[in-house]
Design brief:
It contains eight helices and 14 strands. The chain has 216 residues and is α/β, with parallel strands linked by helices. The strands form three sheets. The protein has a six-stranded mixed beta sheet, covered by helices on one side. The chain has a six-stranded mixed beta sheet with strand order 7-8-9-10-13-14. A two-stranded antiparallel ribbon has the order 11-12.
Length: 216
């Protein structure tokens, strides 16, 4: 598996480009508004996306999905429970972040629904969809079981977890998602988060300061 990442936009959001080989078809996981940087990385590695997978609908993870469709024609996969976020990027900037929009922030043009337990067969990859509400109602993580990699979005970070104080957030749901979906993975599973450096399930199981909350 070929996996490259780029940290983009003011929120320092990680966007991942994942491919079976070093050139050819790929998927993009999360699409921050800085689409030019994503396009440059695709061109550099001679990759083209078959799909854009959104972990959730917050602007720093989806604000470039519409423009990325214009550039590549790749459909956006996102959970319907986050439609209130995904379909209103400008309102997010004003209401959630208190930011006056400056630039292009488009909702996905072509959307495909994500569902719990779904397996996505895209670009030669097999990715399982974990529905992990808590940070947002439609938050999802993606797992490549063969490679033991989890793209965790804003569910789990190195030494932290996602915030739950935004509309639709729930600490109890996030802890339940951790307990039922994430901590069932093997300790050697590499975690590629939506912000910050990679970690592993084993490291977070042993040392994450929020681990007592998801222990139940």
């Amino acid at each position: 598996m070929f996996n490259v990442s780029q940290t983009l936009w003011i929120a320092e959001t990680n966007s991942y480009i994942v491919a079976k080989d070093t050139a050819g078809p790929c998927v993009v996981i999360d699409a921050p508004p800085d689409v030019g940087a994503i396009a440059s990385l695709l061109a550099k590695h001679d990759l083209y996306p078959e799909a854009v997978l959104l972990t959730h609908g917050h602007i720093d993870h989806m604000g470039g999905s519409g423009e990325l469709f214009d550039l590549t024609g790749a459909a956006t996969y996102v959970h319907a429970d986050d439609d209130f976020l995904t379909l209103a990027p400008m309102e997010q900037l004003r209401g959630l972040m208190g930011v006056t929009p400056d630039g292009r922030f488009d909702a996905p043009v072509v959307r495909e629904p994500l569902a719990a337990g779904q397996t996505l067969e895209l670009a030669g990859l097999s990715l399982e969809v974990l529905h992990t509400p808590g940070h947002s109602p439609g938050h999802c993580c993606f797992v490549d079981s063969e490679e033991a990699v989890l793209w965790s979005g804003d569910q789990l970070f190195a030494g932290s977890i996602g915030r739950t104080d935004l509309p639709g957030g729930s600490t109890s749901e996030l802890f339940a998602s951790m307990r039922q979906q994430i901590m069932t993975l093997d300790d050697d599973t590499v975690v590629m988060p939506g912000h910050g450096p990679p970690t592993s399930i084993g490291v977070e199981r042993r040392s994450n300061p929020f681990r007592e909350g998801w222990a139940g």
